[in-house]
Amino acid sequence: MDYTKITSKITSDINDAIMRLYPNTNIPDVTVTVPTQLDKADFVCDVAFRLSKILHTAPYAIGESIAKEINSTQSQDGDYTLEAARPGFINVHLTDASLSKILIHINDTNQNYGRNDILAGQRWVIEHTSPNPNKAMHIGHLRNNLIGMAVANIAAYCGASVVRDCIDNNRGIAIARAMWGFLKCKKRDSAKDVTLVDWANNPSAWITPEEEGTKPDHFIGTCYMYGAEAAKKSPEIDQEIRQIALDWENGDANTWKLWKLAIGYAHDGINQTLARIGSHWDLVWHEHEHYKDGRGMILDNISKGIFKRLENGAILSNLKSYNLPDTIVLKSDGTSLYITQDIALTKLKKERFNADKLFWVVGPEQSLAMKQVFAICEQLGIGKLSDFTHLPYGLISIVDKQTGAKKKMSSRDGNTLYIDNLLDEVRDSLLNSGRDYDEKTADLIAIDAVKFAVLKPSRNSDSVLDIQESINLKGDSGIYILYTLSRINSLLSKYTGDLTLPQSEEFALSSEERKVVMLMAYFPKKITDALESYAPNILIEYILDIAHVFNSIYAKEQFISEDVANTRKKLYLSKSIAIVITNALKLLGIKPVDRI
Questions:
Q1: Is the separation of the CB atoms in 352 and 125 below 8 Å?
Q2: Burial of 186 per CB tally in 10 Å (0-12, 13-18, 19+)
Q3: Closest Cα to residue 46, out of 75, 86, 99?
Q4: How far is C-alpha 180 from the chain's CA centre?
Q5: pLDDT tens digits for range 76-104
Q6: CB atoms < 10 A from the CB of 25, how many?
Q7: Helix or strand or coil: residue 390?
């Protein structure tokens, strides 16, 4: 028995009872929901309030009548009982037989428990992360990545065909700075001034990331910072860098050769980081392949009134009907802007994937720009506004170890914490914690702990990452959840009996056991809640609730004893909890270790 079957049966029974009690009445929709106070009921229905307006009768009296009607018609071994609660709610209490069926269903469906097909037949494209290939990814990218991956996982679990993609912004002045920086600061003979031609003729005269012992994206990031700082101090150097960008645009062979080397280093390092955290893209769109495509789309639609040419030759949008400010889509010299590229790429995505919905996991500072892109895409017939969704997310700060104060991350001023360094720091903290971890296990636990901490705040909330709190065994941390699973695995490994149960098995459950079973029964609803709100943190809060109840029971009661029936019940309950927590963690992109 699962959530949908239970709530559907209760809803149908209440609807039928109303028809018997109040014939010829226009019956309002009957809905059964999860109560806000879980100690009061397993489910709750508010239909009596809406019936009260039709029947001109107190809602509590209507609730009493409905509860009495159903309780009197159900057999003693029914699935639930009802009671009226003031001022007019109908509380639903499942029987132990129903709760036992829920446990059996969880174990029977196992890794598919909670899966549904509400998005079956739909194709979603979710763009996330999109790091610039001129440096390593920082923790802001990590929040973007983990949210994008989690939303994609949840959508796929609900039946959608999901494409995870990103845009590789692999051209422009930032890449030229990294290229110039490489030429100047990675030359073996640093005393000798060099040119691009020198490198093209003798590339072995330049050091590689492997020789330096540096991860390749960090290596090219150093080059970028060197070029950026030099350009700030010298207009002549700034002009040299701009010439590199111009030479690239004009297709100069040596410039393109160096460009491929530089972005190759960045991509290699980024892919190493993604592999470490277990994230991926199904497709990467490279900016250099499509950045010119939007220009024709703009010019072809001026005559239709979608765009208008200004006196200086620039092209402006026409978004008055959308109550949005207009924006330039082509410069006066005819060159494209990012919005031009976004429009072209959205068209490419729609056509390639025949996507029903497209999502962009992008920071809140891009909210206006995204609205403008979506509006223009609707004007051009690429899709409807409802096809496009911007998923903004809050900024992330980190607690300074020395001062205890939080500090925001900024790649522009060098105040950056890279993903690799963050994971290394958490791993090293675990290795120095006094717990018996080898380096590989510590790294896996560190990744899980960081993912949990980054996804724990609501998507739109700014958050502070406290490294020590993220590995606190007693706090609401990922380590706490992993420890709960490890505790369950240890219990199950000690039991040599058979935990396979017949469908007719019925457990006598304590109040806390009932509570944790009902929490597990709500898992399918929590998944759809997370989907509807694009809010992975709902699942974080949910598994913390389950873990709290389990550990409360564990602290007070024996799970393995001479009482065979109680032992089987406790371990079957534990196994069910492990299934639900593991399934939830997988949706969050967290792969738990077996033991911690």
A1: no
A2: buried
A3: 86
A4: 36
A5: 668 999 999 999 999 999 999 999 999 99
A6: 12
A7: strand
